[in-house]
């Protein structure tokens, strides 16, 4: 096993820890790890990412549910339109993306590069949310849920999940706090439930288009599950706002690296 492979499998634990602590960000790490450390193509990596993040988030959601930190009504209002969006995106939109995406005598944009560039831009947007948006770190107060706004956000996150294999926790948590008025810890638990359903539906929708290396995928996912069990335990001791700000800067740096690597190197 090469040093890159060792780092890749070690990073899978970090993916789980991140999901357990802040209820999102796992897919932001998963795709770069699969592509740059383990050498898997971006198209296949998006499919693998959906399975890893979906399975790991499901385990985390069960742990939060035991602590009564999952709001099922908010999850339902968000998830139903999101399920439809991710399924349609994986079934029709992703296979329809041409390769190359754009081509002229002076410029050539392969599908794999386009996916990574889009993902880098998503990471930069996510980092801004985590660094600047202090409202999502308050405890909030429960109030009336806005199902229409949650549904609209669900469609957006579902499309994002389908295209780039991102669970969308960095969009889901602010939505749950600001639109459903959930306390931050309940938003984290509810986010994990939504992410798990979104990601696994996206994985199943695209399964017919990829050949899966199940031995690798299950091993990688098992380490990520260990990470989320550790992450949910660490929530008792780690400050959520501080961790989210630090992780936001890490996501920003990683997004810049991917963007520079794919467009200039």
Automatic annotation (TrEMBL):
Pfam families referenced in this protein's UniProt entry, alphabetically: TauE
Lineage: Bacteria, Pseudomonadati, Bacteroidota, Cytophagia, Cytophagales
Protein source organism: Larkinella knui
Membrane topology listed for this record: Multi-pass membrane protein
Subcellular location: Cell membrane; Membrane
Top-level taxonomic group: Bacteria
Signal peptide: none
Keyword Transport: no
Keyword Cell membrane: yes
Transmembrane segments: 7-29, 35-62, 74-93, 113-131, 152-180, 186-209, 216-234, 246-264
A Gene Ontology cellular-component term: plasma membrane
UniProt record similarity statement: Belongs to the 4-toluene sulfonate uptake permease (TSUP) (TC 2.A.102) family.
Entry protein name: Probable membrane transporter protein
Keywords: Cell membrane, Membrane, Transmembrane, Transmembrane helix
């Amino acid at each position: 096993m090469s040093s890159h492979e060792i780092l890749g499998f070690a990073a899978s634990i970090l993916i789980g820890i991140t999901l357990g602590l802040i209820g999102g960000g796992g897919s932001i790490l998963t795709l770069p790890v699969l592509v740059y450390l383990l050498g898997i193509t971006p198209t296949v990596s998006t499919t693998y990412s959906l399975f890893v993040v979906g399975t790991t988030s499901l385990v985390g959601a069960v742990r939060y549910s035991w602590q009564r930190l999952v709001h099922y009504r908010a999850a339902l209002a968000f998830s139903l339109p999101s399920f439809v969006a991710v399924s349609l995106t994986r079934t029709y939109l992703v296979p329809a993306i041409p390769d190359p995406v754009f081509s002229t005598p002076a410029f050539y944009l392969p599908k794999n590069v386009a996916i990574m560039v889009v993902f880098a831009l998503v990471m930069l947007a996510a980092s801004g949310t985590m660094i600047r948006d202090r409202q999502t770190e308050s405890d909030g107060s429960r109030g009336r849920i806005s199902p229409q706004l949650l549904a609209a956000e669900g469609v957006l996150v579902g499309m994002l999940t389908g295209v780039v294999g991102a669970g969308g926790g960095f969009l889901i948590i602010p939505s749950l706090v600001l639109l459903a008025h959930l306390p931050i810890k309940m938003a984290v638990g509810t986010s994990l439930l939504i992410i798990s359903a979104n990601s696994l539906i996206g994985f199943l929708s695209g399964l017919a288009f990829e050949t899966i290396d199940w031995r690798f995928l299950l091993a990688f996912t098992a380490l990520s599950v260990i990470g989320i069990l550790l992450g949910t335990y660490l929530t008792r001791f780690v400050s959520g706002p501080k961790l989210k700000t630090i992780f936001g800067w890490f996501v920003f740096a990683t997004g810049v690296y991917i963007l520079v690597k794919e467009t200039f190197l």
